[in-house]
Specification:
Elements lengths: L10 E6 L5 H17 L3 E4 L6 H10 L1 E4 L10 E4 L6 H9 L3 E4 L3 H15 L3 E5 L5 H7 L6 E4 L16 E5 L5 H14 L13 H14 L4 E5 L5 H12 L5 E4 L15 E6 L5 H12 L6 E5 L17 H13 L3
Parallel strand pairs: 1-11, 1-12, 2-3, 2-4, 4-5, 6-7, 6-8, 9-10, 9-11
Length: about 325
């Protein structure tokens, strides 16, 4: 990270764990492997993960990001992002004769399967999450007739169910743990027979990063979270830092976005990053801080992470040949 200098009384507390989670790592590697295996272009429906740097880097390698399946040419390969998609999107891809790679995070897939199972048993499903988020759209699409979105505790009063004895809650995986449980408590007060999912929907990485940022907030006068503005888990980390007592907390994509006035009167800076952020961006912030006297870096470790996910099974097939076969079938030249 170059030459680092330290001024007396100035230090950086660096959170561990931080940055890439297993689902993000899997999704990014999946795009890179697909480009290597099949060649450009590889179309990706929505941003593969919510990070500007990652998206730009993959675009330079030949990935093309689109918002709608209809934007993908017939016979091409399209990858679904880590946030997951609704069944209707899979149907659109099939109708468009597209070869698909599903890079949905396995923990998001788990929530999808829970929604399908509870809908099959005719439960009303209260999905705690943020309206418009890709993950919420995908999960809701699994059982739209059974799912009601609850966007925080303030939404609880207007929630209605058919049978209070058959209601369950699920949640978006990237929420604040504390806020989610506040919403659950409010729901249980209204629906005492509310059932909880068999396992916590909020992913291990989200929880670990929030625990780490709470630890930083105990000693830091300023917490910097590296992450993009459309990253739910990164936004939540800023909120968690402030709620945990940090006098100031800010979200930045790059070191260049840091305002030097944030450092006024600050002896200790807490630094962490969202689950979609590569370490290179954190290293740049460390260099930026070191150049301003914050060269003393102490790692604050609150958890070990060893979880990994295997790559999408579609990367073990010849998708270009499959796409060509689908096109031939459509044009009658099979």
């Amino acid at each position: 990270m170059g030459c680092m200098t330290a001024s007396p009384g100035r230090r950086v507390l660096l959170a561990a764990p931080r940055g890439y989670c297993a689902g993000v790592d899997r999704a990014v590697i999946a795009v890179e492997k697909a480009l290597e295996q099949y060649g450009a272009p590889i179309y990706v429906r929505h941003e593969i993960v919510h990070n500007k740097y990652v998206v730009r880097t993959l675009e330079k390698k030949g990935a093309i990001f689109v918002e709608r399946t209809a934007e993908v040419p017939e016979g091409a390969i399209v990858m679904f992002s880590a946030h997951g998609v609704a069944p209707a999107v899979h149907d659109e891809a099939a109708a468009g004769k597209l070869a698909t790679i599903d890079a949905t995070c396995p923990l998001v897939t788990k929530v999808h399967k829970e929604a399908v199972r509870f809908a099959k048993d005719d439960f009303d499903i209260l999905l705690i999450g943020h309206e418009g988020h890709e993950e919420v759209i995908g999960t809701s699409g699994e059982a739209p007739e059974h799912i009601t979105l609850v966007d925080g505790p303030s939404d609880v009063a207007k929630v209605e169910v058919r049978d209070p004895s058959k209601v369950v809650w699920l949640s978006q995986t990237t929420l604040s743990v504390d806020e989610t449980m506040e919403t659950v408590d409010a729901l249980k007060e209204k629906f005492p027979q509310l059932i909880s999912p068999p396992s916590d929907d909020i992913c291990y990485a989200t929880q670990n990063r929030q625990i780490a940022v709470k630890k930083l907030a105990e000693d830091a006068q300023l917490v910097i979270v590296v992450g993009s503005k459309n990253s739910s888990n990164s936004i939540r980390m800023v909120e968690v830092a402030l709620d945990a007592g940090a006098p100031a907390a800010h979200l930045v994509d790059f070191a260049s976005e840091i305002d030097e006035t944030w450092l006024d009167g600050v002896g200790t800076v807490g630094l962490t990053s969202g689950a979609s952020v590569p370490d290179v961006l954190v290293d740049e912030v460390l260099e930026w801080l070191a150049a301003r006297g914050y060269g003393d870096v102490e790692t604050v470790k609150t958890a070990d992470e060893s979880i990994t996910f295997s790559l999408p099974k579609e990367l073990r097939r010849d998708l270009r040949a499959e796409a060509a076969a689908l096109m031939a079938e459509r044009t009658g030249r099979k």
